[in-house]
């Protein structure tokens, strides 16, 4: 075990834990933002630099500070390490610079982007970015590409986090897309215009932190804050069958994985990730396909919780009954909306 102190809070964690995961164990404001790291995807992290922190003391044995900010998702803790995140003005300044670089080529098209309201870059911009821009050059632009009949790639919005590439590598039998070229000409592309179509390909939509990969069956159907998320499951032969249904009225507009407070798809009891297969995601959009568990917990600061959460939902009687039961049973986690607001 190693003792590490992050923003003056000390915690003991297993050897080999990264600073980011140690901060996640503490939770709250000390957790650095992460745009490319994804706990269920091996070798993710180290691309975006949003998770940088200052290591004030390397370890008990060697107390020298690290000479420059380090990526917390790729740096493991040492016994006696002292780390600063939000208590370091230098880290906040450096992170604002990273956000500025990420936004250098990202369009400011939140008003027309399907990901608005659940976009990690939008949140990052608000929390760590600057109000003004210094960038005067034309942003790079790409045509939108359909990769298969269910997913659209809008490369203009991609921040090259590699998460979708790792999903394709680790979840699907053969990867047909990747990052081509380097630097400011880097882009996500399929090899020779292959379609990405295998049973688990829809998960690239869930891991994309921005609006670069979107669900074509949901595009422009509704702003996300006008929809009502509900947790549901079904007995699926391919995946865990644990999903989130996004209702507008009594219509299921889309099906996604359930995300945790770090924006990642949740884990099953056995520690595996509750990835969602394409059949659950695209072919089961009727309430009768699912066993409804109850309203999803939404973080208090999310715009999804705005607009009178679950206030005006009109469901069939049976579904409404399940909501009420779930609302009565639900335990209120700190920082979450009250699911009793049915
Ligand atoms: S398309 Fe999305 S998930 Fe893939 S690299 Fe770009 S930002 Fe990341
Ligand atoms: S989350 Fe650590 S570098 Fe991207």
Please provide a written account of the structure.
This protein has 342 residues and is α+β, with helices and mostly antiparallel strands. The chain folds into three domains: 2-90, Ubiquitin-like (UB roll) (Roll), CATH 3.10.20.740; 105-215, 2-Layer Sandwich (Alpha-Beta Plaits), CATH 3.30.70.20; 224-329, no CATH class. It is 19% helix and 18% strand. It contains seven helices and 14 strands. A five-stranded mixed β-sheet has the order 2-1-5-3-4, sandwiched between helices. The protein has a four-stranded antiparallel β-sheet with strand order 13-12-11-14. A three-stranded antiparallel β-sheet has the order 6-7-10, with no helix packed on it. Strand 8 (177-180) and strand 9 (187-190) form a beta hairpin. Helix 2 (89-104) packs across helix 3 (120-128). The longest helix is centred in the N-terminal third of the chain and has 16 residues, at 89-104. The chain is globular. 39% of the residues are buried. FE2/S2 (inorganic) cluster (FES) is lined by residues 34-37, 45-51, 71, 73.
């Amino acid at each position: 075990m190693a003792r590490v102190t992050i923003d003056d809070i000390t915690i003991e964690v297993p050897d080999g834990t990264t600073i980011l995961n140690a901060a996640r164990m503490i939770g709250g404001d000390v957790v650095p933002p992460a745009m490319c790291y994804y706990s269920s995807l091996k070798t993710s992290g180290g691309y975006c630099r949003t998770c940088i922190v200052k290591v004030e003391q390397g370890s008990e044995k060697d107390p020298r500070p690290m000479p420059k900010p380090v990526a917390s998702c790729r740096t493991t803790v040492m016994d006696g390490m002292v780390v600063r995140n939000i208590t370091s003005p230098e880290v906040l300044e450096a992170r604002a610079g990273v956000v500025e670089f990420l936004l250098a080529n990202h369009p400011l098209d939140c008003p027309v982007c399907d990901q608005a309201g659940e976009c990690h870059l939008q949140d990052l911009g608000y929390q760590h970015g600057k109000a003004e821009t210094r960038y005067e050059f034309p942003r790079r632009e790409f045509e939108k590409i359909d990769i298969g009949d269910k997913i659209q790639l809008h490369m203009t919005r991609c921040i090259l986090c590699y998460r979708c590439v790792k999903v394709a590598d680790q979840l699907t039998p053969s990867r047909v897309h990747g990052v081509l070229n380097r630097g400011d000409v880097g882009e996500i592309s399929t090899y020779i215009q292959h379609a990405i179509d295998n049973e688990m390909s829809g998960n690239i939509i869930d891991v994309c932190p921005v609006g670069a990969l979107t669900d074509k069956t949901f595009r422009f159907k509704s702003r996300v804050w006008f929809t009502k998320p509900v947790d549901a499951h079904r007995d699926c032969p391919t995946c865990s069958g644990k999903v989130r249904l996004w209702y507008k009225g009594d219509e299921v507009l889309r099906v996604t994985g359930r995300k945790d407070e770090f924006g990642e798809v949740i884990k099953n009891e056995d520690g595996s990730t509750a990835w969602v297969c394409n059949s659950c995601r695209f072919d089961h959009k009727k309430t009768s396909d699912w066993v409804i568990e109850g309203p999803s917990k939404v973080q208090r600061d999310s715009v999804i919780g705005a607009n009178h959460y679950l206030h005006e939902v009109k469901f069939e009687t049976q579904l409404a009954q399940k909501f009420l039961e779930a609302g009565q049973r639900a335990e209120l986690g700190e920082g979450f909306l009250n699911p009793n607001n049915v």
